[in-house]
């Protein structure tokens, strides 16, 4: 598949995803459904072509850049943030750290439990 | 002066400014030894905010140019299917820890953000805007609108949460004994969506893949949890 084919495929998956989310009234974002569609397509083909692989690598390697425009939107809310910076700052910082720890520990604990169960089964 | 008036209103100028600011931020990140706290996204945002404030440029004028970069978020999300396919066998084997971690993460993010903001006396609009802060921006903005928040304020908090998670995520997780790249990626994606997923991709490709998965699952779960809460409270 040539590069333009890979670009068209990704855009097509996104478009169908957006349309499906809207038509079904799902609270899901179109691109997430688009990713599901692309995954199904790749599975059906037995793997992504070289061009699709490179395009995906390129997009994901520069993922950070894509968040910059939305972030600059902070300038629109400087007044509110100046007024409530203690509450906003504390809530964002503590909540983010709590979430990181809770989620990281859950993954580790459930993985350990699952591995332990598999091992016990293996021995029995 | 007339030239500046032309330039300042031109989408091309603000598109270039966005890419340039990011290039500078990446250079600073590299030159300072790739320290996590010199986050390229955060630095680029601060640089551009400075330029807008100094030149008195309204955000919509800036966004008319920057939207071409912003647009690529959709295709990049779709592109997550590729690393997901590449790592599919391993992901299937860890489906249970992944789901459990994202569910616990989404609940913790929601309850702690709303609870803390409320305890600290934030106003109702701020609290509603903050509730979906750990979810990827386009979904978070949709949720915020539904529950009486301000979508663009939500976008700002989402980005703040993202940069914070990218910066402190690896340090906090190692400190509490989470070193498995799969667990680290999942926690970063669940707490701080795409910005931290981008940082996770730089740690390790596997961590990035789990970050992307956690981000997508958390968008689904948080939408579902909030929809359920709305129905229940009604």
Shape of chain A: flat
- Count of spatially separate domains of chain B: 2
Overall pLDDT of chain A: 88
Oligomer: heterodimer
Chain pair forming the biggest interface: A-B, 72 and 110 residues
- Give the mean pLDDT of chain B: 89
Structure report:
The complex is a heterodimer of chains A (124) and B (234). Chain A is an all-alpha fold. Chain A folds into two domains: 1-61; 71-124. Chain A contains five helices and no strands. Chain A has helices at residues 3-24, 30-45, 50-61, 68-71, 78-123. In chain A, α1 (3-24) packs across α2 (30-45). The mean pLDDT of chain A is 88. With 234 residues, chain B is an all-alpha fold. Chain B folds into two domains: 2-71, no CATH class; 78-233, no CATH class. Chain B is built from 13 helices and no strands. Chain B is globular, with a radius of gyration of 19 Å. Chains A and B meet through α1, α2, α3, α4 and α5 of A and α2, α3, α4, α5 and α6 of B.
Brief characterization of the structure:
The complex is a heterodimer of chains A (124) and B (234). Chain A is mainly alpha-helical and 124 residues long.
Write the layout of secondary structure elements.
The complex is a heterodimer of chains A (124) and B (234).
Chain A: H1 3-24, H2 30-45, H3 50-61, H4 68-71, H5 78-123
Helix pairs in contact in A: 1-2
Chain B: H1 2-9, H2 11-31, H3 40-55, H4 59-71, H5 73-79, H6 81-86, H7 88-93, H8 95-119, H9 124-130, H10 137-146, H11 151-175, H12 181-203, H13 205-233
């Amino acid at each position: 598949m040539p590069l333009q084919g890979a670009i068209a495929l990704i855009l097509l998956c996104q478009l169908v995803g957006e349309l499906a989310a809207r038509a079904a009234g799902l609270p899901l974002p179109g691109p997430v459904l688009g990713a599901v569609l692309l995954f199904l397509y790749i599975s059906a083909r037995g793997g992504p072509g070289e061009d699709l692989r490179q395009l995906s690598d390129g997009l994901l390697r520069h993922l950070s850049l894509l968040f910059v425009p939305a972030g600059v939107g902070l300038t629109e809310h400087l007044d509110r943030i100046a007024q409530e910076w203690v509450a906003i700052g504390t809530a964002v910082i503590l909540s983010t750290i709590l979430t990181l720890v809770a989620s990281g520990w859950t993954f580790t604990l459930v993985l350990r439990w699952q591995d332990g169960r598999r091992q016990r089964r293996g021995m029995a | 002066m007339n030239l500046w008036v032309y330039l300042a209103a031109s989408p091309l100028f603000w598109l270039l400014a966005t890419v340039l600011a990011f290039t500078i931020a990446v250079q600073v990140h590299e030159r300072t030894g790739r320290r996590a706290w010199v986050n390229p996204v955060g630095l680029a945002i601060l640089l551009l905010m400075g330029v807008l404030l100094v030149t008195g440029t309204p955000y919509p004028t800036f966004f008319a140019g920057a939207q071409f970069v912003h647009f690529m978020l959709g295709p990049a999300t779709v592109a997550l299917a590729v690393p997901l396919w590449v790592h599919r066998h391993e992901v299937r084997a860890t489906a249970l820890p992944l789901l459990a971690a994202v569910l616990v993460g989404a609940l913790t993010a929601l309850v702690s953000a709303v609870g803390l903001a409320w305890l600290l006396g934030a106003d109702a609009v701020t609290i509603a805007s903050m509730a979906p802060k750990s979810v990827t921006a386009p979904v978070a903005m949709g949720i915020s609108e539904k529950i009486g928040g301000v979508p663009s304020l939500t976008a700002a908090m989402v980005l703040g949460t993202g940069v914070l998670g990218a910066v402190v995520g690896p340090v906090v997780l190692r400190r509490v004994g989470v070193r498995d790249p799969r667990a680290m990626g999942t926690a970063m994606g669940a707490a701080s969506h795409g910005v931290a997923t981008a940082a996770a991709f730089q740690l390790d490709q596997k961590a990035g893949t789990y970050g992307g998965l956690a981000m997508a699952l958390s968008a689904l779960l948080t939408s579902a949890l909030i929809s359920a809460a709305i129905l229940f409270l009604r």
